[in-house]
Amino acid sequence: MKKPVQDLLRPWVLAQWWWLALVPVAWFSLFWRLGAQPLQNWDEARLAVNAAEMLRRHDWLVTHYRGQPDLWNTKPPLLIWLQALSLNAFGYSEWAFRLPTALAALALTGLVAAFARRWLGGPLAGLLAGLALLTSKGFVTQHVARSGDYEALLLLFTTAQLLAGFAWLQTRRPGYVVLLGIAVGLAVLTKSVAGLFLLPGLAIEITRRGRLLPLLRLPATWLAVGLALGIPALWYGLREHVAPGYLHAVWENELGGRMLGSLEQHASPWYWYLTSFVTQQFLLWTPWVLLSCWALARRPFRRPAHRFLTAALWSSGIFMLVISAASTKLAWYDAPLYPLLALVIGGGLTVLARRVAARHVAAAATWRSLFLVALAVVPSLIAVQRRLGKEHSRRYEEAALTYGRFLHDANATAGGNSHFIALHHSISPSTQTYNAPLEFYALAFEHDHPGNTMEVRYAPAQLPVGHVVLVCGAAAQQLLAAHYRTRTLYAADSCQTVQVLAPR
Fold first, then answer.
1. What is residue 422's three-state secondary structure?
2. Contact between residue 257 and residue 71 where contact means Cβ atoms under 8 Å apart
3. Residues near 455 by Cβ (< 8 Å), separated by ≥ 6?
4. Which of 454, 418, 424 is nearest to 436 (CA)?
5. How confident is the model at residue 338 (pLDDT cuts 50, 70, 90)?
6. How far is CA 186 from CA 108, 156, 311, 375, in A?
7. Is the Cβ–Cβ distance between 417 and 468 less than 8 Å?
8. CA separation for the pair 33, 51 (Å, rounded)
9. Radius of gyration of the chain from Cα atoms?
């Protein structure tokens, strides 16, 4: 007689406590040294400045950068709201700023594991799906689960869309349709049109299964449509009313810009995501994805795991077509695939474990099933943790070249008055007049030291004699030395605190 997977798990851990194995992996993958690295330039640091200025101005509608409405980052502010609340609660630090992203990634892991347990094969499927997600290089990386960017929160809501739609197909409960509408609205409020990219595949699956007309007849469907459209429409309308010109900037940056043209030279061939996926982002899991798809495809069509495979393939396939057709391509744009692939792995490997159990006595089946889990999970877990260690070492060394670590040193500002100037200069044309991390660290300094001010400058002209200037990096120090005679007050790593004595 075939033994259920729950029986296979009991010699190892009680079936109801299967999720405990995910806890240490989640801690290492999502929270280990979360605040150790300095803020990354461009997107992450830009959001940090938006959140800090939101708190300073008490303006929760219009995001600002250097005192002006931010029309470079035109995404809706749901994530920035959460980051501002975190900074207000826990202080101005890298850890507090990234905490909402890490919590969103944790919630996504829990959602994936719980769904797999419910629909794809019980505790073993939930455990495997959660571990597959937490050991995916494309998920546990900068710009997704390890930094204060949009992707982790976006993935939580886009994955919830597909899972709610699938749950409705299986149960016909109207509540799942309402949850789908809420997830759509929150996804758009997180990252605009990117929150809709999994819906075409879900619509095809609903139509293919002959459930489109019954869905349209449900009152819950129109409530869901109202939520999905009303939540973003309210935000966009208010934002345009308060500061006209915002909708035009959204079109130029997010629709016409990224879809029809290449922003900031991020252009690549149409097959770029496929090659990146196989060679980098999901490398160690790729064979298991193929094996899982084969195992699920052999199951009877009436099985939920098989039906989920078809839904995931439709959604993933259409999504890949959309992002591959877009002119702007970035490594993290394919991140919505990883929760879906983790679910496929959870269901597929559980099928294989059950086949092992059907062919061997209980004790042998248990050890063979555990060996299968270890063979699938351990190499990816080791690879991710080694990469996180290398990434931490590299970023920590880079921190010596940034103002963030220097400003955390109390000696850096001990010898000045209440007004400081941070001078930035770079040999790179793209960053000569841009340093978003420095802008955030200056705001953090002012927050942590009431009565003190930190002015950020990008040119050495008209520096007041006697004022204290902070400079990091050889380029800024050489530029300052070329224009002024100075006296060094403190130095650490590549940074200096100096006092301006006289122009040269």
1. strand
2. no
3. 419, 420, 421, 422, 442
4. 424
5. very high
6. 14, 10, 22, 37
7. yes
8. 22
9. 26
| Contact between 106 and 26 (Cβ < 8 Å) | yes
Query: What percent helix, strand, coil does the chain show, rounded to 5?
Result: 65, 10, 25
d(CA 189, CA 82) in angstroms, rounded, equals: 12
User: 357: which 2 tokens?
Assistant: 């159990």
* CB within 8 Å of 309: residues ≥ 6 apart: 293, 296, 297, 344, 347, 348
Q: Any bridge partners for residue 395, and if so which?
A: none
Range 60-66, long-range pairs (CB < 8 A, 24+ positions): 60/84, 61/238, 61/239, 61/242, 62/239, 62/242, 62/243, 65/436, 65/439, 66/439
What does residue 488 show for φ and ψ, rounded to 5 degrees?
-75, 125
| Burial (CB count <10 Å: 0-12, 13-18, 19+), residue 262 | middle
Task: Note the pLDDT tens digit of each residue in 142-178.
Answer: 889 999 999 999 999 999 999 999 999 999 999 999 9
Q: How far is CA 412 from the centre of its chain?
A: 33
Amino acid at 91: G
Structure tokens at 154: 């976006």
- Residue 70 to residue 62: CA distance in whole angstroms: 8
276-292 burial string, b = 16+ CB within 10 Å, else e? bbeeebbbbbeebbebb
Largest Cα–Cα distance in the chain? 90
- What's the start-to-end Cα distance of the chain, in Å? 90
129 vs 137: CA distance, rounded Å: 15
Residue indicated by tokens 């099985």:
303
Number of H helices, E strands in the chain: 21, 7
Q: Which residue in the block uniquely carries the two structure tokens 């004699």?
A: 465
Q: Nearest-5° angle of CA 251, CA 254, CA 255?
A: 60
Helix 123-134 vs helix 94-119: angle between axes, to the nearest 10 degrees? 150
- Residue 140 is given by DSSP the state S
- Specify the range with the lowest mean pLDDT, choosing from 88-102, 140-154, 203-217, 299-313: 299-313
Q: Which of 206, 197, 106 is nearest to 156 (CA)?
A: 106
What was the pLDDT predicted at 400? 43
Half-sphere exposure of 403 (CA within 13 A, CB side): 29
Cα-based distances in Å from 347 to 1, 123, 314, 357, 491: 21, 10, 17, 15, 56
Q: SS in 3 state form for 43-76?
A: HHHHHHHHHHHHHHHCCCCCCEECCEECCCCCCC
pLDDT at 376 over 80: no
